[in-house]
Design the sequence.
């Protein structure tokens, strides 16, 4: 990304305009990412502040990223969230439904789509491990490549592939099980629509 590398080059010289552009370009996305992982707006805001403070500290001492500023910022955010979660000793929730709903009008979603979406969010929240949630968020919501996701998480690409594969398989099984369970309860309760022919 040429814009990213030019901006990073200017930021490394502590150019005020470049630093402001970095913040403007990445702060909202990093906030959403942190919010997905920690579920608390205040904590997410503090984390983003810490990320940019660390970036400034690194750049002022001649360290920090030399390429791919975006991945570097997400990596710092990821580690800062992990530190926060360890400190608070609580489960990392996934508040993706509210975030995704901001960009769409629910009136246009069919009822089936709304039900499926809620099932997917519930499955991500309750069925996946923390690593699996991180990989799913980075790969499919933030649209990072396997290599970028591995760099952010500090894992090998092959390990991220395994985590992603297991997460998707778990989600598939959870959704199939929920679909079967709902179908069976409908049959038991006699609430199967007449159009099914039962």
Sequence:
């Amino acid at each position: 990304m040429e814009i990213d590398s030019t901006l990073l080059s200017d930021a490394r010289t502590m150019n005020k305009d470049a630093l402001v552009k970095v913040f403007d370009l990445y702060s909202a996305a990093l906030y959403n990412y942190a919010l997905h992982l920690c579920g608390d707006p205040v904590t997410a805001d503090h984390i983003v502040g810490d990320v940019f403070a660390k970036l400034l500290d690194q750049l002022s001492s001649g360290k920090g990223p030399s390429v791919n500023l975006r991945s570097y910022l997400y990596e710092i955010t990821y580690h800062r969230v992990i530190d926060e979660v360890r400190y608070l000793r609580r489960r990392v929730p996934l508040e993706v439904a509210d975030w995704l709903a901001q960009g769409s009008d629910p009136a246009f979603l069919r009822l089936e789509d709304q039900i499926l979406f809620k099932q997917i969010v519930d499955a991500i929240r309750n069925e996946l491990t923390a690593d699996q949630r991180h990989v799913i968020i980075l790969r499919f919501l933030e649209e990072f490549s396997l290599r970028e996701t591995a760099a952010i998480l500090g894992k090998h690409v092959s390990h991220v592939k395994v985590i992603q594969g297991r997460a998707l398989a778990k989600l598939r099984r959870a959704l199939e099980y929920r679909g079967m369970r709902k179908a069976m309860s409908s049959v038991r309760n006699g609430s199967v629509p007449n159009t099914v022919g039962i």
Summary: The chain has nine helices and no strands. Residues 157-189 form the longest helix (33 residues). The chain has two domains: 1-93, 95-189. The radius of gyration is 21 Å.
